[in-house]
Amino acid sequence: MTLNQLRAFVEVVEHGSIRAAARHLNMEQSGLTQQIKRLEDGLGARLFIRAAKGISLTSEGTELLARARIILGECDRAEQIFRNLHGELSGSINVGVSSELFALLLPPVLQQFRKMHPRVSVHMSAGPSTSLLSALREGRLDFALTLISSGTDTGDFHATFLKKSDPCVLCRKGHPLRDARSIHQIREAEWVNTRPFGRIGTPSNRLADWFAGNGLGIPNMVGSVESLYDTIDLISSSDYLFLAPRIILRKLSLGRHLDCIDVAEPIPESDMCLVERAMIELAPAPKAFSQLLLKHALGVGR
């Protein structure tokens, strides 16, 4: 098994076919096919199920994918470390960011960082906590700025506390339940979320935990919409409710169409944290960016 074989394997997975991966790598399709065959022969396992509609991973392929991404990510980080030892920071950074932390920290910090290190590019992936932590485990992210709750599995991570999350119940302007002051007055309302409910005590399950903690059944969920912007658009043009960061009211252009229902019952807390893998030190560029974020977060938190 070689690094080139692992890179070929990951490219095929990410592009959905050998043809598309070969085109992206600017190599002959037959050469890429041979790389995959040699990898399968070396492992003694079939990695792909090939069909007329494309390819899918076998269970062995799924197992290899997570490990291959970690191995290749660490190789890239090692190269970056040695490039940066005696010169200006360069390369790329992959950061996972939840919507609340993006609005709170990223715009001013990113601008400052780019002025300090113009040869470093920053790619940011948005998503719920569970998705970002999975990507971090697999080595697809350098670190994540996300929500951590009592039920979050952080055994293989180091989490630095930044600030308490500030959620609220969002509704459209003029919503008939706008003046409700108790969760019991909105228990029959219809809700949307950016993700299906998760495990008890996790950020994605906060709405269900809130209802359960007040002796209510499962909220009446219309469905989930992964895009925060699309969720807000839906809320602003319907009578659905959404448990969301309060900062949305100030930061997003659609905020002027929204209102907040202030109820007496406290919403389960989550911590906004900078999360990195516990046993792996950040490369110089991600480390510099994370330190700048921490410095700014401490100033915002005062």
UniProtKB/TrEMBL annotation:
Transmembrane segments: none annotated. PROSITE patterns: HTH_LYSR. SUPFAM superfamilies: Periplasmic binding protein-like II (SSF53850), Winged helix' DNA-binding domain (SSF46785). It holds the Pfam family HTH_1. GO terms for molecular function: DNA binding; DNA-binding transcription factor activity. Keywords: DNA-binding, Transcription, Transcription regulation. Residues 1-58 form the HTH lysR-type domain. One of its GO terms (cellular component) is cytosol. It comes from the Bacteria. Belongs to the LysR transcriptional regulatory family. This is LysR family transcriptional regulator.
